[in-house]
Amino acid sequence: MNGHLRSAAYICHGLVVAVAVTAAGCSPASRRAPAAAGRGGQLAVSVRIEPRTYNRFASRTETDLIVSMLTQATLFRVNHVTDEVEPWLAEKSARSADGLRYTLTLPSNVTFSDGQPFSAEDVIFSFEAAYDEKSNGTLNDVMRVGGKKLQVERVDPRTVAITFPAPYAPGLRILDNLPMVPRHKLERALKEGTITKAWGISTPPADIVGLGPFVPLEYLPGQHMTLVRNPHYWRKDGNGASLPYLDRVTLEVVPEQDAELLRLESGQVDMTTSEIRPEDYAPLKRAADGGRVKLMDLGVTLDPDSFWFNLKPGALGADPRAAWLQRDEFRDAISMAVDRQVFVDTVFLGAAVPVFGPVTPSNKKWYSPDVPHVPHDPARAKQLLASIGLIDRQGDGVLRDQRNQPVRFTLLTVKGRTALERGAAVIRDELKKIGITVDIALLEPPAVVQRLVSNSHYEALGFHVGTTDTDPASNADFWLSSGSTHVWNISEKAPATDWERRIDELMAKQMSTLDESERKRLFNDVQKIFSEHEPVLYFAASRVYAAASSRVTNVTPAVSRPQLLWSPDSIAVVQ
Amino acid sequence: MFLYLLRRLAFAAVLVFTVSSASLILARLAPGDYVTMTLGIDARRDAAEALRAQYGLNRSIAEQYRDWLFHAARLDFGRSLLYDTPVNELVRERAANTALLAATALAAATLVGIPLGVVAGSRRGLLSQFIRAVSLLLLSLPSLLTSLLLVAVAARTGWFPIGDMRSMGASPGATLSTVDLLWHLVVPATALALPIAAMFERVQSQSMADVIGQPYVLAALARGVPRSRVVWRDALRPALRPVAAVYGLVVGALFSGSFAVEVVTAWPGLGRLMLEALRARDLYLVAGCAAAGSVFLALGTLVSDMALAAIDPRSPGDPSDPRNPGNPRDPREPRFMESAECVEAASA
Hints:
The complex is a heterodimer.
Chain A: H1 3-9, E1 19-21, E2 32-33, E3 42-47, H2 62-71, E4 76-78, E5 85-87, E6 92-96, E7 101-105, H3 120-130, H4 139-142, E8 144-145, E9 148-149, E10 151-156, E11 159-163, H5 183-191, E12 214-220, E13 224-229, E14 236-237, E15 248-253, H6 257-265, E16 271-272, H7 281-289, E17 293-300, E18 306-309, H8 322-325, H9 328-337, H10 340-347, E19 352-354, H11 378-387, E20 408-414, H12 418-432, E21 437-443, H13 445-454, E22 460-463, H14 476-479, H15 498-512, H16 516-533, E23 536-537, E24 540-549, E25 552-553, E26 572-573
Parallel strand pairs in A: 2-14, 3-15, 3-16, 20-21, 20-22
Antiparallel strand pairs in A: 1-6, 4-5, 6-7, 7-11, 8-9, 10-11, 12-13, 13-15, 17-24, 18-22, 18-23, 19-24, 25-26
Chain B: H1 2-29, H2 34-39, H3 45-55, H4 61-72, H5 87-122, H6 126-140, H7 143-157, H8 174-212, H9 215-222, H10 227-239, H11 241-255, H12 259-264, H13 270-280, H14 283-311, H15 337-347
Helix pairs in contact in B: 1-14, 5-6, 5-8, 5-11, 5-14, 6-8, 7-8, 8-10, 8-11, 8-15, 11-14, 11-15, 13-14
């Protein structure tokens, strides 16, 4: 064989002082689903990432979360449509007057999918599994309040008491994260410190036991996971019929989004778990007009893409540009220079709304309409820049600093995320109009995340910081200066600025007070301070679309992920 | 010949060692690690460090490599961080899927490309020009686009499934199961086969045209031997040499896994597994996939050389042998620069 040809190829006790029944905790009606017309049938759902485990303690990918939603159940859940906390496995709850202790009553007739009864022991075990230090599961952080564990104790076989380490306003909302897992199946793994290694993909599906509506039947790696109705599922619909309605659910692995949509259009899958991209709206609308699919407009996203500068003191080393790159005026100028409507039209093809902060109008409870709307005003932007010494010194349209160096920075973002890529391009083009040069650097997700968590080796970053909940207290890591997702200056030992200290104080009160109106007032103040300093810039929040086959019924779409599959037991199909 | 085989096997071992080692080291040196990607940006630093220690990712690259090498020497490529499953097990399963897809695509490309090449290379006229034009079009289309086009056609017509290897709830019977598998193979195998068939056609066509111009072929034609007999009996065998030369590369490239085709058509093969491993920074799985790919590549070249030897009895299969027609010093060897260009185009 020709040598050069060959070489070319190698290449989540005690005394109740005074008891107040929580509003959410005494509503058995929420344990009943509205009745659906059809029963039986199969639902094919496409997922982009392969399932890696049946174990919620071991992974946090969206696919594994979906598998957990299908096979497991929590004591309380957040209703994605109403955004309210509702009792799920727990029948009712009572809160002590100091708000620290909750007493939960468990149902008497609930069994795991293998027929074993669910009891207070399983609740305690699930908490122990989440907090296991030997295996460091993904829920260890999530199930803590202020970095401290919740204390759980058995009162009787049907009653558990959960004590919070400090007053925590979201209260039982935190339990939406913790699936109840069977002690009789996983106790050994926990004792051996291998809880996160249990229930891997090579585990025979028959060994996977849960309280969810479905149980695994088969998993063909890289192809599909099939789940069938849990015969012992505990929930019934409004007519008293057993749920779920579906006989089986199949998760089809389709890594490529274009191929995923083609499969949806052709009826080979019934729904996708990915949000519909703006560019896919038109073809799906045609398919919807043809009656092949249902296209749902779920509203504006809860977590818009964000852009920020590295504000960690010293992060830019001896780079003299730090003198202006980390100034409030610089960020204010950029916020004014970028036309948000252009951003909406170019990046999201019009399917978005301009936003001015991290909380979007979809978050009805916490959105503050009082946050100032920054106007598009390039002239004012130039004045702000001039106030920090960035002037067009040579009359060539290029702003220069006091060393006569062009005002230029690198905006790093994630390769392959089209909205972020296009957003970076719009920022570059808009800033060019006022004489600022932006160099865009696209990197693979791991490289970007590594720079983000290390808070180094970047000047400006475009990223999607996904939020897990609408309640600001559940996203405290973003607001608090010590937080791990305080992206502009991660995990500060002490607040670097007075305004960050002020936000810390307000958030501490907001998270601990149980007076909802006071919480709202405090969080409005937080948003106001945030908008004054704009440590993170927000330009647009996209509309969220979801699509499903026209044969799918009884879905309750919601803007938060997973939009269609968050309540799988009540979904039905027309056969 | 035996010594030559030994040399080639030694070369294959060096190739597998080099490629898998380089993959592990490069994946380790790349920014970001498995723990960062698994725990996300909101993980506590101490939790992330504890997990790194658990997976041994806090050790120096030299230590990590030494341990990996120690186990790899015993054909133990470690445990996938992503799937918490032995790498060998994952790779074996996905490599089998890739091999099935590759073998099907290769067979289809061979059965279509070579005959068309013979036809296009031995005649002039509209048919030859049409074949050449279609080949050039297919060669110029990236695999990603070809795959998307075929998936779009399959989706619109509903004739073929787009993705997976078998239908959900497929009948367990062997015959039906095989039919179901073949039905699922149509789209990915066609996407993979089209550019390769086009390449084979181009290479074969040019080679055939060269051979047809050789004096012994002209003499046979002058003696009145029917043209089809001369072409298919006398000229075909020598004209197959350049195709045999590139065949190994194609086999190696095909069996190493095709990222684009496997991702678009959702075929659970080696290429897709490696892509997932790279995205998650699963070092051991990356190295395992690379090792499997290089094994295929080495085997491909070996098969290619063996095929060359079978086609041309003058060749003992040793490229250093001056009698080897693959040796560039052989003045009888036609110029096949066009073949290299075709391989590059098909690979792209």
